[in-house]
Amino acid sequence: MSNQATTSGAGAPRKRAIDKVNASLKRRYAAERRFHLIGMGAVILGLSFVAILFLDIISKGYPAFQQTYIQLQVHFAAGMIDPDGSRERDTLVRANYLKLVRDALKEQFPEVTDRREQRALNAILSPAAPLQLQDLVLSNPSVIGTTRDVWVLADDDIDQFVKGHIKRDLPQSDRRVKDQTIAWLDVLDERGRLEKKLNTPFFTNGTSREPELAGIAGALMGSFYTLLLTLLFSFPIGVGAALYLEEFAPKNRWTDIIEVNINNLAAVPSIVFGLLGLAVFIGFFGVPRSTPLVGALVLTLMTLPTIIIASRAALKSVPPSIREGALGVGASPLQAQFHHVLPLAMPGMLTGTIIGMAQALGETAPLLMIGMIAFIVDIPGGFTDPSTVLPVQIFLWADSPERGFVEKTSAAIMVLLGFLMLMNLAAVLLRRKFERRW
Predict the structure, then answer these.
(1) Between 151 and which of 69, 97, 315, 421 could a Cys-Cys bridge form, CB atoms 3.0 to 4.6 Å apart?
(2) Tens digits of per-residue pLDDT, 287-320?
(3) 248 and 387, same domain (yes or no)
(4) DSSP characters for 354-403?
(5) DSSP tag of 174
(6) What HEC string does 405-436 produce?
(7) Which range of residues forms the domain containing residue 293?
(8) What does the alpha-carbon distance between residue 213 and residue 67 come to, in Å, rounded to a whole number?
(9) pTM
(10) What is the DSSP string of 317-329?
(11) Given this model, what pLDDT does residue 328 score?
(12) Within this chain, do residues 76 and 53 fall inside the same structural domain, yes or no?
Protein backbone atom coordinates (compact mmCIF):
# COMPACT_ATOMS: atom_id res chain seq x y z
CA MET A 1 0.00 0.00 0.00
CA SER A 2 2.79 2.38 0.85
CA ASN A 3 4.52 1.66 -2.49
CA GLN A 4 1.32 2.36 -4.42
CA ALA A 5 0.82 5.60 -2.53
CA THR A 6 4.40 6.62 -3.28
CA THR A 7 3.97 5.83 -7.00
CA SER A 8 0.69 7.66 -7.09
CA GLY A 9 2.22 10.62 -5.36
CA ALA A 10 5.14 10.69 -7.85
CA GLY A 11 2.86 10.28 -10.87
CA ALA A 12 0.76 13.31 -10.10
CA PRO A 13 3.58 15.87 -10.71
CA ARG A 14 4.62 13.98 -13.86
CA LYS A 15 1.05 14.13 -15.16
CA ARG A 16 0.85 17.84 -14.42
CA ALA A 17 4.14 18.37 -16.25
CA ILE A 18 2.91 16.41 -19.27
CA ASP A 19 -0.34 18.36 -19.27
CA LYS A 20 1.63 21.58 -19.11
CA VAL A 21 3.82 20.50 -22.04
CA ASN A 22 0.78 19.48 -24.08
CA ALA A 23 -0.90 22.80 -23.38
CA SER A 24 2.30 24.58 -24.43
CA LEU A 25 2.45 22.53 -27.63
CA LYS A 26 -1.14 23.43 -28.43
CA ARG A 27 -0.35 27.11 -28.01
CA ARG A 28 2.72 26.75 -30.24
CA TYR A 29 0.80 24.92 -32.93
CA ALA A 30 -2.00 27.50 -32.75
CA ALA A 31 0.54 30.32 -33.06
CA GLU A 32 2.16 28.54 -36.00
CA ARG A 33 -1.19 28.15 -37.73
CA ARG A 34 -1.98 31.83 -37.13
CA PHE A 35 1.41 32.84 -38.55
CA HIS A 36 0.83 30.59 -41.57
CA LEU A 37 -2.59 32.12 -42.16
CA ILE A 38 -1.26 35.68 -41.75
CA GLY A 39 1.55 34.92 -44.21
CA MET A 40 -0.84 33.43 -46.75
CA GLY A 41 -3.18 36.38 -46.29
CA ALA A 42 -0.33 38.83 -46.87
CA VAL A 43 0.71 37.01 -50.05
CA ILE A 44 -2.86 36.86 -51.34
CA LEU A 45 -3.40 40.55 -50.48
CA GLY A 46 -0.20 41.54 -52.28
CA LEU A 47 -1.08 39.50 -55.35
CA SER A 48 -4.57 40.97 -55.32
CA PHE A 49 -3.21 44.52 -55.35
CA VAL A 50 -0.83 43.62 -58.19
CA ALA A 51 -3.69 42.01 -60.13
CA ILE A 52 -5.89 45.09 -59.59
CA LEU A 53 -3.05 47.33 -60.78
CA PHE A 54 -2.48 45.25 -63.90
CA LEU A 55 -6.20 45.04 -64.69
CA ASP A 56 -6.55 48.81 -64.29
CA ILE A 57 -3.57 49.49 -66.57
CA ILE A 58 -4.74 47.00 -69.20
CA SER A 59 -8.35 48.19 -69.14
CA LYS A 60 -7.22 51.78 -69.70
CA GLY A 61 -4.39 51.00 -72.10
CA TYR A 62 -5.66 48.44 -74.60
CA PRO A 63 -7.93 50.95 -76.45
CA ALA A 64 -4.79 52.91 -77.38
CA PHE A 65 -3.75 50.11 -79.72
CA GLN A 66 -6.70 51.07 -81.94
CA GLN A 67 -7.43 54.44 -83.50
CA THR A 68 -10.49 55.82 -85.27
CA TYR A 69 -10.16 56.43 -89.02
CA ILE A 70 -12.50 58.08 -91.53
CA GLN A 71 -12.57 56.95 -95.14
CA LEU A 72 -12.67 59.80 -97.67
CA GLN A 73 -12.85 59.72 -101.44
CA VAL A 74 -9.98 62.04 -102.30
CA HIS A 75 -9.45 63.46 -105.79
CA PHE A 76 -5.71 64.09 -106.17
CA ALA A 77 -6.08 66.94 -108.63
CA ALA A 78 -2.97 67.30 -110.76
CA GLY A 79 -3.51 71.04 -111.17
CA MET A 80 -3.39 71.52 -107.41
CA ILE A 81 -0.60 69.09 -106.54
CA ASP A 82 1.77 69.26 -109.52
CA PRO A 83 0.59 71.90 -112.03
CA ASP A 84 3.75 71.75 -114.18
CA GLY A 85 3.94 67.93 -114.16
CA SER A 86 7.57 67.92 -113.03
CA ARG A 87 7.00 65.48 -110.14
CA GLU A 88 9.71 67.31 -108.21
CA ARG A 89 9.65 66.67 -104.49
CA ASP A 90 9.72 70.34 -103.53
CA THR A 91 6.65 70.99 -105.67
CA LEU A 92 4.77 67.99 -104.24
CA VAL A 93 5.56 69.00 -100.66
CA ARG A 94 4.17 72.53 -101.13
CA ALA A 95 0.78 71.38 -102.47
CA ASN A 96 -2.38 72.36 -100.56
CA TYR A 97 -3.30 68.96 -99.10
CA LEU A 98 -5.49 70.59 -96.46
CA LYS A 99 -7.89 71.75 -99.17
CA LEU A 100 -7.86 68.28 -100.74
CA VAL A 101 -8.91 66.57 -97.54
CA ARG A 102 -11.52 69.20 -96.69
CA ASP A 103 -13.03 69.02 -100.17
CA ALA A 104 -13.24 65.24 -99.83
CA LEU A 105 -15.02 65.58 -96.48
CA LYS A 106 -17.38 68.21 -97.88
CA GLU A 107 -18.41 65.78 -100.64
CA GLN A 108 -19.76 63.48 -97.93
CA PHE A 109 -21.94 66.30 -96.55
CA PRO A 110 -22.82 68.69 -99.42
CA GLU A 111 -25.72 70.10 -97.38
CA VAL A 112 -23.30 71.74 -94.94
CA THR A 113 -22.89 75.28 -96.24
CA ASP A 114 -22.76 77.46 -93.13
CA ARG A 115 -19.20 78.51 -92.32
CA ARG A 116 -19.56 77.69 -88.62
CA GLU A 117 -20.89 74.23 -89.44
CA GLN A 118 -18.09 73.73 -91.97
CA ARG A 119 -15.51 74.49 -89.27
CA ALA A 120 -17.22 72.02 -86.95
CA LEU A 121 -17.27 69.42 -89.74
CA ASN A 122 -13.58 69.92 -90.54
CA ALA A 123 -12.78 69.54 -86.84
CA ILE A 124 -13.66 65.84 -86.91
CA LEU A 125 -10.43 65.23 -88.84
CA SER A 126 -7.01 65.07 -87.24
CA PRO A 127 -4.48 67.82 -88.05
CA ALA A 128 -2.39 64.97 -89.47
CA ALA A 129 -4.88 64.17 -92.24
CA PRO A 130 -3.19 66.49 -94.80
CA LEU A 131 0.19 65.00 -93.88
CA GLN A 132 -1.17 61.54 -94.60
CA LEU A 133 -2.14 62.64 -98.11
CA GLN A 134 1.27 64.25 -98.54
CA ASP A 135 3.06 61.05 -97.52
CA LEU A 136 0.88 59.05 -99.90
CA VAL A 137 1.72 61.33 -102.82
CA LEU A 138 5.45 61.42 -102.03
CA SER A 139 5.65 57.64 -101.75
CA ASN A 140 3.51 56.99 -104.82
CA PRO A 141 3.30 59.95 -107.26
CA SER A 142 1.20 57.84 -109.62
CA VAL A 143 -1.89 58.70 -107.53
CA ILE A 144 -1.77 62.26 -108.90
CA GLY A 145 -4.75 62.80 -111.19
CA THR A 146 -6.71 59.86 -109.73
CA THR A 147 -9.46 59.47 -107.16
CA ARG A 148 -8.71 57.13 -104.25
CA ASP A 149 -10.44 56.03 -101.05
CA VAL A 150 -8.09 57.01 -98.24
CA TRP A 151 -8.42 56.27 -94.52
CA VAL A 152 -7.39 59.37 -92.56
CA LEU A 153 -7.07 59.88 -88.82
CA ALA A 154 -10.00 61.29 -86.87
CA ASP A 155 -9.59 63.92 -84.17
CA ASP A 156 -8.85 62.70 -80.64
CA ASP A 157 -12.27 63.78 -79.34
CA ILE A 158 -13.93 61.79 -82.12
CA ASP A 159 -11.74 58.84 -81.25
CA GLN A 160 -12.75 59.03 -77.59
CA PHE A 161 -16.42 59.23 -78.56
CA VAL A 162 -16.22 56.21 -80.86
CA LYS A 163 -14.44 54.22 -78.13
CA GLY A 164 -17.20 55.06 -75.66
CA HIS A 165 -15.20 57.31 -73.35
CA ILE A 166 -17.51 60.23 -74.22
CA LYS A 167 -21.11 59.20 -73.61
CA ARG A 168 -23.74 60.37 -76.09
CA ASP A 169 -26.52 60.25 -73.45
CA LEU A 170 -24.91 63.10 -71.48
CA PRO A 171 -26.24 66.64 -71.93
CA GLN A 172 -24.56 68.43 -74.81
CA SER A 173 -23.04 70.99 -72.44
CA ASP A 174 -21.24 68.20 -70.53
CA ARG A 175 -19.41 66.64 -73.47
CA ARG A 176 -16.86 67.82 -76.01
CA VAL A 177 -18.64 66.24 -79.00
CA LYS A 178 -21.79 68.12 -79.94
CA ASP A 179 -25.08 66.68 -81.23
CA GLN A 180 -24.49 67.84 -84.80
CA THR A 181 -21.07 66.18 -84.85
CA ILE A 182 -22.59 62.95 -83.51
CA ALA A 183 -25.16 63.06 -86.32
CA TRP A 184 -22.37 63.36 -88.91
CA LEU A 185 -20.49 60.46 -87.32
CA ASP A 186 -23.62 58.32 -87.41
CA VAL A 187 -23.96 59.02 -91.15
CA LEU A 188 -20.31 58.08 -91.75
CA ASP A 189 -20.79 54.92 -89.72
CA GLU A 190 -23.87 53.92 -91.72
CA ARG A 191 -21.90 54.40 -94.95
CA GLY A 192 -19.06 52.22 -93.62
CA ARG A 193 -16.63 55.11 -93.58
CA LEU A 194 -15.94 55.16 -89.83
CA GLU A 195 -13.83 52.38 -88.34
CA LYS A 196 -11.34 51.58 -85.61
CA LYS A 197 -8.08 50.23 -87.00
CA LEU A 198 -4.70 49.18 -85.63
CA ASN A 199 -2.97 52.27 -84.28
CA THR A 200 0.30 51.98 -86.20
CA PRO A 201 1.27 55.65 -85.50
CA PHE A 202 1.57 54.70 -81.83
CA PHE A 203 4.54 52.51 -82.73
CA THR A 204 6.02 54.59 -85.57
CA ASN A 205 5.58 58.24 -84.48
CA GLY A 206 7.44 60.33 -81.97
CA THR A 207 5.61 62.27 -79.32
CA SER A 208 3.12 64.99 -80.19
CA ARG A 209 0.80 67.47 -78.50
CA GLU A 210 -2.09 65.85 -80.39
CA PRO A 211 -3.08 62.56 -78.68
CA GLU A 212 -3.99 60.80 -81.92
CA LEU A 213 -0.52 61.53 -83.34
CA ALA A 214 1.56 60.73 -80.26
CA GLY A 215 3.71 57.59 -80.44
CA ILE A 216 6.47 55.83 -78.55
CA ALA A 217 8.97 55.34 -81.38
CA GLY A 218 11.19 58.21 -80.23
CA ALA A 219 11.15 57.05 -76.60
CA LEU A 220 11.82 53.44 -77.63
CA MET A 221 14.85 54.41 -79.70
CA GLY A 222 16.10 56.67 -76.92
CA SER A 223 15.78 53.80 -74.44
CA PHE A 224 17.53 51.46 -76.88
CA TYR A 225 20.54 53.75 -77.39
CA THR A 226 20.75 54.55 -73.68
CA LEU A 227 20.61 50.91 -72.56
CA LEU A 228 23.07 49.81 -75.25
CA LEU A 229 25.65 52.34 -74.08
CA THR A 230 24.91 51.51 -70.44
CA LEU A 231 25.61 47.84 -71.14
CA LEU A 232 28.83 48.62 -73.00
CA PHE A 233 30.06 50.83 -70.15
CA SER A 234 28.86 48.96 -67.08
CA PHE A 235 29.43 45.28 -67.93
CA PRO A 236 33.22 45.30 -68.49
CA ILE A 237 33.81 47.77 -65.65
CA GLY A 238 31.58 45.85 -63.24
CA VAL A 239 33.02 42.44 -64.09
CA GLY A 240 36.59 43.77 -63.95
CA ALA A 241 36.01 45.41 -60.56
CA ALA A 242 34.39 42.26 -59.17
CA LEU A 243 37.22 40.06 -60.46
CA TYR A 244 39.88 42.28 -58.94
CA LEU A 245 38.17 42.65 -55.57
CA GLU A 246 37.34 38.97 -55.26
CA GLU A 247 40.47 37.33 -56.67
CA PHE A 248 43.43 39.73 -56.67
CA ALA A 249 42.90 42.62 -54.21
CA PRO A 250 44.68 42.29 -50.86
CA LYS A 251 42.44 42.10 -47.82
CA ASN A 252 43.15 45.30 -45.92
CA ARG A 253 41.43 48.42 -44.66
CA TRP A 254 41.22 50.06 -48.09
CA THR A 255 39.52 47.14 -49.80
CA ASP A 256 37.13 46.89 -46.85
CA ILE A 257 36.23 50.56 -47.32
CA ILE A 258 35.70 50.01 -51.07
CA GLU A 259 33.44 47.00 -50.46
CA VAL A 260 31.38 48.87 -47.86
CA ASN A 261 30.95 51.82 -50.24
CA ILE A 262 29.91 49.56 -53.12
CA ASN A 263 27.22 48.04 -50.93
CA ASN A 264 26.12 51.49 -49.78
CA LEU A 265 25.96 52.80 -53.35
CA ALA A 266 23.46 50.07 -54.21
CA ALA A 267 21.04 51.70 -51.73
CA VAL A 268 21.59 55.34 -52.74
CA PRO A 269 18.43 57.02 -54.17
CA SER A 270 18.65 57.15 -57.95
CA ILE A 271 18.08 60.90 -58.10
CA VAL A 272 21.45 61.38 -56.40
CA PHE A 273 23.12 59.82 -59.44
CA GLY A 274 21.18 62.31 -61.59
CA LEU A 275 22.55 65.20 -59.55
CA LEU A 276 26.05 63.75 -59.91
CA GLY A 277 25.65 63.43 -63.67
CA LEU A 278 24.34 66.99 -63.90
CA ALA A 279 27.31 68.37 -61.96
CA VAL A 280 30.10 66.20 -63.39
CA PHE A 281 29.21 64.98 -66.89
CA ILE A 282 27.25 68.05 -68.02
CA GLY A 283 28.66 70.82 -65.84
CA PHE A 284 32.33 69.80 -65.82
CA PHE A 285 32.92 67.63 -68.91
CA GLY A 286 30.35 69.38 -71.12
CA VAL A 287 28.50 66.27 -72.36
CA PRO A 288 25.39 67.39 -74.32
CA ARG A 289 22.19 67.43 -72.31
CA SER A 290 19.23 65.18 -73.04
CA THR A 291 21.22 62.65 -75.08
CA PRO A 292 21.55 58.88 -74.72
CA LEU A 293 25.27 59.38 -74.03
CA VAL A 294 24.83 61.36 -70.82
CA GLY A 295 21.89 59.17 -69.83
CA ALA A 296 24.03 56.06 -70.23
CA LEU A 297 26.83 57.54 -68.14
CA VAL A 298 24.43 58.27 -65.29
CA LEU A 299 22.75 54.87 -65.49
CA THR A 300 26.16 53.19 -65.60
CA LEU A 301 27.02 54.70 -62.23
CA MET A 302 23.67 53.54 -60.89
CA THR A 303 23.89 49.94 -62.15
CA LEU A 304 27.57 49.29 -61.37
CA PRO A 305 26.97 48.34 -57.69
CA THR A 306 24.33 45.79 -58.71
CA ILE A 307 26.59 44.23 -61.35
CA ILE A 308 29.64 44.16 -59.06
CA ILE A 309 27.74 42.52 -56.19
CA ALA A 310 26.16 39.91 -58.48
CA SER A 311 29.48 39.21 -60.21
CA ARG A 312 31.30 38.71 -56.91
CA ALA A 313 28.61 36.30 -55.77
CA ALA A 314 28.99 34.38 -59.04
CA LEU A 315 32.78 34.18 -58.57
CA LYS A 316 32.35 32.91 -55.02
CA SER A 317 30.07 30.13 -56.25
CA VAL A 318 32.89 28.61 -58.37
CA PRO A 319 34.55 25.79 -56.36
CA PRO A 320 38.16 26.45 -55.23
CA SER A 321 39.18 23.15 -56.84
CA ILE A 322 38.74 24.76 -60.28
CA ARG A 323 41.31 27.42 -59.44
CA GLU A 324 43.63 24.93 -57.78
CA GLY A 325 43.43 22.52 -60.71
CA ALA A 326 44.22 25.27 -63.22
CA LEU A 327 47.18 26.51 -61.16
CA GLY A 328 48.35 22.93 -60.65
CA VAL A 329 48.77 22.32 -64.39
CA GLY A 330 50.89 25.48 -64.79
CA ALA A 331 48.36 28.22 -65.59
CA SER A 332 49.09 31.70 -64.31
CA PRO A 333 46.59 33.27 -61.89
CA LEU A 334 45.24 35.48 -64.69
CA GLN A 335 44.90 32.50 -67.05
CA ALA A 336 43.13 30.51 -64.33
CA GLN A 337 40.62 33.32 -63.90
CA PHE A 338 39.95 34.08 -67.56
CA HIS A 339 40.04 30.52 -68.94
CA HIS A 340 38.41 28.58 -66.11
CA VAL A 341 36.71 30.68 -63.42
CA LEU A 342 35.09 33.40 -65.53
CA PRO A 343 33.34 31.02 -67.98
CA LEU A 344 31.77 29.19 -65.04
CA ALA A 345 30.77 32.41 -63.28
CA MET A 346 29.48 34.13 -66.41
CA PRO A 347 25.82 32.93 -66.12
CA GLY A 348 25.50 34.58 -62.71
CA MET A 349 27.21 37.70 -64.00
CA LEU A 350 24.88 37.91 -66.99
CA THR A 351 21.88 37.45 -64.72
CA GLY A 352 23.00 40.31 -62.48
CA THR A 353 23.70 42.47 -65.52
CA ILE A 354 20.26 41.89 -67.03
CA ILE A 355 18.62 42.70 -63.70
CA GLY A 356 20.68 45.90 -63.55
CA MET A 357 19.64 46.77 -67.11
CA ALA A 358 15.99 46.16 -66.23
CA GLN A 359 16.39 48.52 -63.30
CA ALA A 360 17.97 51.11 -65.58
CA LEU A 361 15.16 50.73 -68.14
CA GLY A 362 12.56 51.72 -65.56
CA GLU A 363 14.44 54.68 -64.06
CA THR A 364 13.04 58.18 -64.40
CA ALA A 365 14.37 60.43 -61.64
CA PRO A 366 18.08 60.54 -62.65
CA LEU A 367 17.18 61.18 -66.30
CA LEU A 368 14.91 64.07 -65.36
CA MET A 369 17.89 65.78 -63.75
CA ILE A 370 19.98 65.64 -66.94
CA GLY A 371 17.33 67.14 -69.22
CA MET A 372 15.76 64.06 -70.84
CA ILE A 373 12.36 65.51 -69.97
CA ALA A 374 12.50 67.82 -73.00
CA PHE A 375 9.66 67.70 -75.55
CA ILE A 376 11.38 66.01 -78.51
CA VAL A 377 9.32 65.11 -81.56
CA ASP A 378 12.06 63.71 -83.82
CA ILE A 379 13.14 60.10 -83.47
CA PRO A 380 16.83 60.02 -82.43
CA GLY A 381 19.25 58.60 -84.96
CA GLY A 382 22.37 58.32 -82.81
CA PHE A 383 23.91 58.45 -79.36
CA THR A 384 24.32 62.23 -79.34
CA ASP A 385 20.90 63.21 -80.70
CA PRO A 386 18.41 64.79 -78.27
CA SER A 387 16.02 62.13 -77.03
CA THR A 388 13.88 60.89 -74.20
CA VAL A 389 13.23 57.42 -72.77
CA LEU A 390 10.08 55.43 -72.22
CA PRO A 391 9.63 56.06 -68.46
CA VAL A 392 10.08 59.82 -68.96
CA GLN A 393 7.64 59.75 -71.88
CA ILE A 394 5.10 58.06 -69.61
CA PHE A 395 5.71 60.76 -67.00
CA LEU A 396 5.10 63.52 -69.57
CA TRP A 397 1.92 61.93 -70.92
CA ALA A 398 0.56 61.34 -67.42
CA ASP A 399 0.77 65.10 -66.84
CA SER A 400 -1.22 65.96 -70.00
CA PRO A 401 -4.84 67.07 -69.47
CA GLU A 402 -6.32 65.52 -72.65
CA ARG A 403 -8.35 62.34 -72.19
CA GLY A 404 -6.61 60.75 -75.15
CA PHE A 405 -3.28 60.73 -73.31
CA VAL A 406 -4.72 58.63 -70.47
CA GLU A 407 -4.92 55.54 -72.65
CA LYS A 408 -1.58 56.38 -74.31
CA THR A 409 0.02 56.51 -70.85
CA SER A 410 -1.40 53.13 -69.86
CA ALA A 411 -0.45 51.60 -73.20
CA ALA A 412 3.14 52.84 -72.83
CA ILE A 413 3.22 51.35 -69.32
CA MET A 414 2.09 48.04 -70.80
CA VAL A 415 4.93 48.17 -73.33
CA LEU A 416 7.45 49.04 -70.59
CA LEU A 417 6.22 46.21 -68.35
CA GLY A 418 6.45 43.84 -71.30
CA PHE A 419 10.11 44.71 -71.84
CA LEU A 420 10.85 44.37 -68.12
CA MET A 421 9.21 40.94 -68.04
CA LEU A 422 11.17 39.83 -71.09
CA MET A 423 14.46 40.97 -69.54
CA ASN A 424 13.74 39.16 -66.27
CA LEU A 425 12.67 36.07 -68.19
CA ALA A 426 15.94 36.21 -70.13
CA ALA A 427 17.85 36.35 -66.84
CA VAL A 428 16.03 33.26 -65.55
CA LEU A 429 16.57 31.34 -68.80
CA LEU A 430 20.29 32.21 -68.91
CA ARG A 431 20.77 31.00 -65.36
CA ARG A 432 18.94 27.74 -66.00
CA LYS A 433 20.77 27.10 -69.25
CA PHE A 434 24.34 27.74 -68.12
CA GLU A 435 24.21 27.15 -64.37
CA ARG A 436 26.19 24.17 -63.07
CA ARG A 437 25.56 22.30 -59.84
CA TRP A 438 28.58 21.42 -57.76
Answers:
(1) 69
(2) 888 899 999 999 999 999 999 999 999 999 888 8
(3) yes
(4) HHHHHHHHT--HHHHHTTTTS---SPP-STTS----HHHHHHHHHT--ST
(5) G
(6) HHHHHHHHHHHHHHHHHHHHHHHHHHHHHHCC
(7) 217-434
(8) 10
(9) 0.85
(10) TS-HHHHHHHHHT
(11) 87
(12) no
